[in-house]
Every structure is written in structure tokens, then in C-alpha cells.
Amino acid sequence: MANLRFPQTCISLPNGVQGMLAHAPHLTHAHVSITIAAGYLDEPSTLPGLAHLLEHVLTTAPLTASSNTSLLTWFAQHQGSLNAHTDDYVTDVHFSIPADSLEAAALTVASQLATPTISPPTIRTEVAAIDAEWQARQHSSAMQRLSAIATLSDPQHIGAGCRHGNAQTLGHHIWLLHEALTTFHRNHYHGGRVSIAIISPRATEAVTRLIQRMATLFNPLPPNAPALAITPRWGSLPRAKVVGTAHAVELLWPLPSSVSRHQFNALSDVADSLNQGYLVDQLANSIIDYHATAAPTGATDTFSLALTGTAPQERLEVLEAFLSERLAAPLATAPIDHRTVWRPPAGTVQLAAAWFVYARQQALARRLAANTAAQPYFPTRDRWPVPHWLVYSAPTTFQHADDAAHLAAVPHVQRWCGQYGVSDDFASLADTTWAACFIPNAMFLPAPLAAKRCARSGVICQHMQLAQGSWVIAVGEGATVAMQTLLKEANVNTAIVPQGLLAQRLVQRLTPLPATPAVWVSHEADADVVCHALADLASRIATRSVQTPSINGSASTAIMRTLSLPGTPTQRWLLVLAEQHHSAAFFQQARYDHHLGYVAAVRRSDGAPCSLGYVVQTSEDAEPVGKKLLSITDALWQAAEDILQTPTSLKHSLTRPETPLAALITQWQSLLSGTDQPLHRLGQQSTNSQALNELLTLINTHGHWQTHWLDSTGHYRVND
């Protein structure tokens, strides 16, 4: 499977705005990131979370042109999606939109970021939303890691505290918050800190003109504005050392105060190469997995190597010395012009997600380059970067059990062979080998460093844990042999460790999955050996129990009302239209009109049956929230005929797979959910067909409504 490459162009505009565009003619949607070089560590020390609050206000405040529409609802109405992210030194608003609507969407977002309406009611609502987000995430492993990173910062540096924000840190007088937000916006949301990144099928010249128009909406650098320079947070603190054993160690190499964009890009290339398995031989056998990152979340002024597992300190010190020398090489290279091609990391599934990460990294590189003096940083051999050691606990769900108990019977394995049309999405898949396996009601536990070993041999592996089971897919020459090895060395465990927010775990239950193990291989000749290996694995249950941690430290409940239909093509298209038509209205009513909690979303699962879910997550008394949820969904479907009148085109309702790996996963999920063809490869159904009209009038007969409940103790129930 050939690596993806997209021509890239970088531009600089008179008011300081930086532009970056990549051309991908096969896309149907454009992906855009507007990044501001300002984050948690730029806000006043007395207002932790102010930068995060501004991000929320910008995306939820009414647009100037419409007092009843926010950016989030605007995108729901235009078949797009929008989100935002606040990090240490950058904040970005990113979105995907059908290519035909790119110009309108880009100018709408740029206008809102440049000249927002910051009103007290919006501030009050978003302080509550941030507090709900804080309550939902504060006991997660990601938040615990951020707190651990803060302990390594200089105590006098702003980064020594957690900057997420909550009701306590932001519980100031609303008008004082209004003034602080206005000041922060004026000082940081100007052309000198704005970067615009667009990947789309549009011609380079047209996108360049669009970026120029977006740039003119931002004010130039104001007088006495804060400098882009980053204040080092690490200082001369002693490095933390491993004491006894730990489940995870993260080595953080602080970046020099002067790093050119080219040097930073070279560090990113080092991270990509390390993640392709080149560290496997350097690690102790007790290391389960690792991941290298340039500019990791929460410590974006460092290079990170995160290790899961245990290892003697002396082995880690050898690894530290090896990597310190490896990192010195890219820092010793002279600056050159910006690269002209963007290459997503190997194994990229979602092109949008990879582009947004890349855009954030380039905005950070801009800040690091702002510190560069006349002569960039060049380390000498006796001044290699020296890392800090961050030691913390992490789940050991990928633990390999040496002994196993055999079940009495070898399970039946369902199988599919052949392409099933994936080469229609990407011609390169016609000559590609793959193998995919699914295990129901169990967690797949790969052997230590299994995916990295596959990557080193040129085989891409993807593993997904769901509420109803696990699947793994291997792609590339030798995929069948790699899959056999994966299955032989792995174990399964019936104790499934939950991941993500409660609402996310509940949404996973929308997807219909088989009750028996399943296999999909590209070539018939490989089917028997893979099926045999999967049956052998599925007949073993790991005897070493994996502890299931508490889902959440705070009392919370996710509630989802679902509509299920048998899954004919017409019914599947109906749910596409309903999701598209209901998303904005449901979000508005659930989150703002009825205040049902931080999460409010409509999600669809395609298959046979097909489903549509309306989900909220609340820390309030769940029963009244559940009644309001039923009332909202009932009202939406009482006017279901309005769905047919929506002035929209179905061709924009679905995003086609944008990478070969995504095409394979989409088809694999389609097979698992009971259909041969993904929805995007079916013929477009007429929105005014008699069958669709009849279905809408008979929805109570065809449809099956349920309400699902999942609370923070792990208790799950379903009401018909």
C-alpha cells in the first residue's frame, strides 16, 4: 500500500497570517484548521482555563449574521463538522465541510474568530460546560498525565498548574470574565499569531485566494502585543528518576529555545521513523508498547518517548543516551526552505485528523522559530539534549498471559474472502494483501510490541476495542503471516476495560456485530490458516485477570435513545437524512434549551439493522433528564416529514474513505454489521421516493425505539 503524498504550498501574508495548503484531488470534503499561537500557558496566572473558555465561547457564541446560530449549529446545518482544541501554546478551530461549501464555511469561521460577539450569557453557559467537561475527564489517564507533567515544571512557571479550568477557577464575576476574554482575544487573536491550513480538492490558486480573503478579516499585530517567544518551563530542575517499578515512563527532551521550522519538521520525521518499529531491539522484553511524538499534548515544547510496561533503570539510561544522540542530528542541520510535500504518517486512517495535528505542529514550530536568533541552535557532541523522566501508572491492558485455559469447543468462525469492491475506492488496493479478525465479547491482548514489529516488516496493523468485542486488521505484503503471528502470540480476556467518555462507550453499542469470531482476507488461499489461528485464539481465555478500573470518579450517567430499522438501502439513507436534519436542533435543545449536560449529539450506525442514537451525558438526576430526552426526540420525529423538504444533496451527506486503510476498515465494518456494501458505494436513493414517504408514515411499525443507560459505576440497562 503506497504512502500518501500531497503537494504542499506555504504562503506569508502582509498582516502576519501564515497560510499552508495541500492539494488532494480525490477528496470530497475540505479539511481546514485555523490555529492561533496562544494557549493555556499564555493566559493570566490568576485565571486558569481562560484560553479554554475563549475557545468554547468562540464556537458557541451567536454569529454576527445570525443571533440564533453558532459555529457548531452552522456546521450541523451545512453537513459539516467542527471542533476546537486548546493546548499549551496553540489553540485551533478545525472543521470538515463538503468542498462545494468550503468558501462560505472558511469565511464564516474566520470572521467569528476575528470579530466574535462575546456575551455574558454565552460566558455563563460555557463556564458550566467546561466544569462538566472537567468533571467528566478529571480522573482519566490523560488528565492524570497532564498533572504529572506539571510537577516537572519550574514551580514559578505557569505550567506548574493544571490549566484546563473549571467552575472554581473560572467562577469569577461574569463581567470580569468578559473583560479578561476581550483583552486576551485582542492581544492574541491577530494576524501575527494566525495560521490557516487547508487540504482540499480545489485548485491551489483558488485556495490561495481564499486564504488571502480569510487573512484580511484579522487585525494586524497590535502595539505592545505579547511576543511569540516561549518562556522555558523546565529550567534546571533535577530529573525525576525511576523508583522501583512503574507501569509507564515518559522521557521528555526539552526543545532548545531556538529551533527552526526545518529542525522541528526533522524531529517530527524522527518520531515517525521510531514509531515504525526501529526501537524494538533497544527495549527490554517487559516493555509492552511505545510511542514517540514531537510536541506531545501537555508538553508541546518537548520531544517525547512514552513507554508502557516496566524496565530496569539501567536499560532506560542506555535508551536515553541512544536517543539523545539520535535527536542531536536533526537539531544540527541547517535551515532549508519549507517542504513541498505533505506525507501523512504511515497507518493514517483519517486524513482530517492527521492534517489537524500537522497544522498544530506547524503553528508551534512558528513559535519555536520566533526565538531563533541570527544563528539557529546547533548542539555540540557534549551538549546533547537531556530528558526529564516522567513516571506514572498506566493501564496494563495489553498484558500477555503465559498460561491459558482451553475451552471445551473450538468456536465456529464466520469468513469473507475477496475485495468486495474496495479497489473502487482506491485502485492501489487491487494489489494489496490484508487479513482482518474479530473476536466477540472479549478484549484482544496483543503480544508486547507486536504492532511495532509488524511495522518494521512493512505491515500496517490497526486494533480496535469496542463494547461488544475487538477487531484487528493487518495490511501489506506478508499480512497473512503477520496476522497468524499476532493471533498465535496474543491472548483474549473477557474483562473489557472501558475507554473514553460514558457517552462514547454508549454510542459504541449502536453498531451490530456478530456473535461469533469472524475473518476477512483478501485472498481465498489464506482463509483457512487465518480462520484456524483465530479459532485457536478465541478458544483461549487469559487466566491472568486484567483489572477493570472505575469508569469515572464522579457521578455521571450517559443516556441514549435509539431508533433501529431493519437496514434496507432506503432505511439506511433515511437515517443519513435524519442525522443530518436533527443534529443541530438536538444539540441546541439538549445542551442549551434544556441543559441536559456537556455531551449532546446525534450519531448513526450503518448496517443491517441500522440505528440512530440521540445521546446526552449528565451529572444531574438521570430520570428527569431521560424524560426530557424522550420528549425532544418525540418532537423531532413528529415533524419527520420535514426531513424530505431539507434542501440538501445526499452526495454531500457522507464522506468517502480518504485513505486506502480507511476504505478497508469501512468495508470490514460493513461486513461485520451485516451488509456487503458500505453506504457510500450504494446507488443514491431518491429523497422523494414513494418508499421513503411510506416509511416515514409507518415509522412506528418499522422502527424499534429503546433507551440505553450507562452510569459511572458501570451499570448498563436498556428500556424498550
Give an overview in words.
With 720 residues, the chain is of the alpha+beta class. It folds into 4 domains: 6-215, 2-Layer Sandwich (Cytochrome Bc1 Complex, Chain A, domain 1), CATH 3.30.830; 248-362 and 372-392, no CATH class; 404-542, Cytochrome Bc1 Complex, Chain A, domain 1; 557-663 and 670-719, Cytochrome Bc1 Complex, Chain A, domain 1 (2-Layer Sandwich), CATH 3.30.830. It contains 20 helices and 25 strands. The protein has a 7-stranded mixed sheet with strand order 4-5-3-6-2-1-10, sandwiched between helices. A hairpin with a 2-residue loop joins strand 16 (460-466) and strand 17. The chain is globular and about 70 Å long. Residues 396-408 and 543-553 have low confidence and may be disordered.
The N- to C-terminal Cα distance equals: 46 Å
Write down the overall mean pLDDT: 85
Which value, in Å, is the CA radius of gyration? Answer: 26 Å
Query: What is the total tally of β strands?
Result: 25
CATH architecture label of the largest domain: 2-Layer Sandwich
Silhouette: globular
What do we call the CATH topology of the largest domain? Cytochrome Bc1 Complex, Chain A, domain 1
For the sheet with most strands, the description reads: 7 strands, mixed
Strand order of the largest sheet: 4-5-3-6-2-1-10
Low-confidence stretches: 396-408, 543-553
Number of helices: 20
Proportion of β residues?
15-25%
Q: Look at the structure and name the CATH superfamily of the largest domain.
A: Metalloenzyme, LuxS/M16 peptidase-like
Helicity range? 25-40%
Count of discrete structural domains: 4
Class from helix and strand fractions:
alpha+beta
CATH class of the largest domain: Alpha Beta
